[in-house]
Amino acid sequence: MAPVSDVDGLIDLDALARWMDSSGLGAGPIDEVTTLSGGTQNIVIRFRRAGRQFVLRRPPIHSGPAHDDSIRREARILSALRATDVPHPHLIGACDDTELLGTAFYLMEPVDGFNPADGLPAQYAIVDDAQRLMSLSLVDALATLSRVDPFEAGVAVPGRADGWCERQVARWITQLNSYEQFHGWPGGAIDNLVEVQYQLSVHSDVSFQPGLVHGDFHIANVMFRHDQPEVAAIVDWELATFGDPLLDLGHLLATWPRADGRGSAATVLDLPGLASGEELVEHYARRSSRSVEDLDWYYSLACLRLGVLLEGTYARACAGLVPLDVGRHFHDMTVALFEQALHRFDW
Fold it and tell me: b/e for 40-61, b at 16 or more Cβ within 10 A?
């Protein structure tokens, strides 16, 4: 975490204090300010006011209207989740007006937990099967999310369910082609892409049960409790959308270490005691009312979708908007994901 001086240029603390005054959110100075993330990703800042801890989330510095819309949607989704059992950061307040801080933003309560990408607490070393229990708790959280009504969450529009599966390939290829706007990007002729398109298109007659999709569900986007291997909150809801929640399970599997030990560039975190992908699927089938019969298709779609999104960072890196080493790393992940998409049930 960064010291308070590092928030210069990221947030106008005086303007924030005035907005909090008008919203009845404490009084007095804002102190103990630390940045939890920033730069090319959404900016997250933790601070204290009147003895209470807050976390602020806003778009990155070089952002536009679409980023503000994303923050507004996140806030609406977190608000909708209040009435559910889904573990999530609790929303305190949101500001849609970009005049105040230059962007939309919202405030949420800090999560009492840790991110496993930063290491496991010592307590976990004395818990039998802690990493496997973490894995199963991930699936429990995902199964709970799969029961959320997308209309109540504010992400569904009547009629969007019709032809959802059939539209997916064209939707993501259009997104990939849009990166041609970035000078220097070599284009979308990526290994295995044509084969992935064909595989998804010819098998698109699959079951579809609408729900709220997190959109970026993997082990590093979840915080766990310090005292026991249980999910404290699912975080980073910026890609949450309408769709079939099986896509989230497919996304988790696409970023999960494989049973034969063959991690890939797309593997988010590989710990020796994690449950196998097969165990995750079996646990989901027990905890969710959804059939996993067509999971292979959703797994392939998750690989395509995530690969296209990551390629966008590479395209921006080619244009000098993101460090090139970061972009190349993401491109390697894209290549790995397109290869994985052709090996359904390869977990």
Answer: bebbbbebbbeeeebbbbbbee
73: helix, strand or coil: helix
Question: Could you give the CA distance from residue 205 to residue 50 in angstroms, rounded to a whole number?
Answer: 56
With beta carbons less than 8 A apart as the criterion, state whether 52 and 26 touch.
Answer: yes
Report the amino acid identity of residue 270: D
pTM to 2 decimals? 0.91
CA 105/CA 59 separation, integer angstroms: 8
CA 32 to chain centre: 27
Question: In Å, how far are 48, 208, 335 from 330, measured between CA atoms?
Answer: 35, 30, 9
Which top CATH class is 116-341? Answer: alpha beta
Evaluate whether 225 touches 297 at the Cβ level (below 8 Å): no
Work out the pLDDT band at 123, boundaries 50, 70, 90.
Answer: confident
Torsion of CA 23, 27, 28, 30, to 10 degrees: -50
The count of residues in the chain is 347
- The answer to whether the beta carbons of residues 249 and 298 sit under 8 Å apart is yes
CATH of region 4-108, choose from 3.30.565.10, 2.60.200.20, 1.10.10.60, 3.30.200.20: 3.30.200.20
Residues 6 or more apart whose CB falls under 8 angstroms from that of 178 comprise none
Sign of the dihedral through C-alpha 167, 81, 86, 120: positive
Largest CA distance in the chain: 61
* Per-residue DSSP letter, 158: T
> Where are the domains positioned within the chain?
4-108, 116-341
Identical fold for domains 4-108 and 116-341, yes or no, is no
Residue 159 tokens read as 């009629």
The 105-108 sheet, strands edge to edge: 30-37, 43-49, 52-58, 105-108, 91-95
The pLDDT tens digits of the residues spanning 17-74 come to 999 999 999 899 999 999 887 555 789 999 999 999 999 999 887 778 888 998 998 9
